[in-house]
Design goal:
Oligomer: single chain
Strand order of the largest sheet: 1-2-3-4-5-6-7-8-9-12-13-14-15-16
Helix content: under 10%
Order of helices and strands: HHHEEEEEEEEEEEHHEEEEE
Distance between the termini: 59 Å
Number of strands: 16
CATH class: Mainly Beta
Number of helices: 5
Length: 387
């Protein structure tokens, strides 16, 4: 089997990861949109409004502006478990508050492994070697507080995709591509907020985050004429601390997510990201554009006294319109915090929905280990204000 037939197989697997029939399937390197961490993964894959750990690099880097100290975390997941293939996903993060720059610097490494493939000759099925396919990204970022209520964050990302390691015979292109992207994000965490018809001050219980991610040039494996856009994405998130006493805390989160890709499938051409950011909101009637927005929400319950042993339970729901992807799943998760250490896991299930037992994402598990100096997320059981 020729190399590029194998590349098509890999791309089909990648498309199954997300199943964005209208947008994500039209973008390259969709691994950039995989929810990377167990905590938000257990809350329906919602995290832009909370964003209070180092995984905020993905969800909303401006949330790190409100954090102090340092944190390192690593997440591992065996991907597409229904296929029983050698696919896995790893996500490594690090953040560090630096007083001299009045903010935090941070970095992450994302790695999606697609397994080992057998190389054959152009005219013979006889194996002549093997190669591995993978996608990877290195992200560097900075976040700072503009005031006690407002934070901003920025990411710069180098993306490398290796679907094969060399061309074969008359085939063009190497199956390897590299590009860059950047993110812009903001967060509002009011110290005081009184809304109409609500007597209580909900400040310090409420936060709003906005993240515009994967802004960057197209990626191509063969030539520029066959380039695909990367998955530029708009995410708006909210978080609210429903209650908080000495031993108990409950947080509700909700995210609204839209892919900003404008591609003409008839001509197989797509706009540049700086055009699609605007036109992808207007190329359909507004009622149809609203249907392209994915909704995810979650609950996180903490039990324990901050500074001591803490235990968390999580659940969430993800919904995508049937005409624009039709993904629906429930998530569950749990976590513990003790001293500087944290452990989280999440479980994704589609089996309660018709046909969900055969969904390639069904039974997905994620595991995350965190070490934090100066406080791990959960020490304040949600919506931390920093020091």
């Amino acid at each position: 089997m020729k190399i590029f037939i194998r590349l098509m197989m890999v791309c089909m697997l990648v498309a199954l990861v997300q199943k964005f029939a209208f947008a994500q399937g039209e973008a390259g390197v969709p691994f950039l949109m995989v929810a990377p961490d167990s905590r938000a993964g257990g809350m329906g894959e919602s995290g832009a409004g909370l964003a209070d750990n180092s995984a905020a690099i993905f969800w909303n880097p401006s949330g790190i502006a409100f954090l102090r100290g340092s944190e390192v975390s690593i997440t591992h997941s065996n991907w597409l478990p229904q296929f029983n293939l050698d696919l896995f996903y790893d996500y490594l993060t690090y953040r560090q508050y630096i007083p001299e720059i009045n903010g935090s610097a941070f970095a992450s490494i994302t790695y999606m492994n697609y397994g080992e493939f057998i190389r054959t000759g152009p005219d013979s099925p006889t194996p002549i070697g093997t190669f591995r396919s993978f996608d990877a990204a290195l992200t560097l970022g900075y976040a700072t507080q503009l005031s006690s209520d407002w934070g901003i964050g920025f990411n710069f990302r180098i993306i490398h995709s290796q679907l094969s390691d060399q061309p074969t015979a008359e085939e063009q292109g190497s199956g390897t591509a590299t590009t860059v992207s950047f993110d812009i994000a903001g967060m509002w965490r009011p110290g005081k907020l009184v809304l109409p018809f609500i007597d209580d001050d909900i400040g310090k219980k409420f936060s709003v985050g906005l993240d515009l991610s994967n802004l960057g040039p197209k990626i191509y494996y063969i030539d520029r004429a066959q380039a695909d856009p990367i998955p530029t994405n708009f995410r708006l998130g909210f978080a609210y601390q429903v209650f908080n006493d000495k031993y108990n805390s409950l947080i509700y989160t909700v995210d609204f997510n839209k892919q900003l890709i404008n591609k003409d499938t008839a001509s197989n051409t797509s706009q540049q990201f700086y055009q699609a950011v605007f036109t992808s909101w207007t190329n359909r009637p507004f009622s149809e554009e609203l249907r392209t927005i994915q909704t995810s929400m979650g609950l996180e319950y903490w039990y324990g006294e901050p500074g001591n042993f803490l235990f968390a339970l999580r659940t969430g729901f993800f919904y995508e319109d049937p005409s624009y992807g039709n993904r629906k799943f429930l998530t569950f998760g749990a976590g513990v915090r003790y001293d500087i250490y944290g452990f989280d896991f999440s479980y994704l299930t589609t089996s309660i929905f018709p046909g969900g037992e055969q969904d390639p994402l069904n039974d997905t598990l994620r595991f995350t280990v965190s070490i934090g100096w100066g406080g791990l997320p959960g020490d304040t059981r949600g919506l931390p204000r920093g020091i």
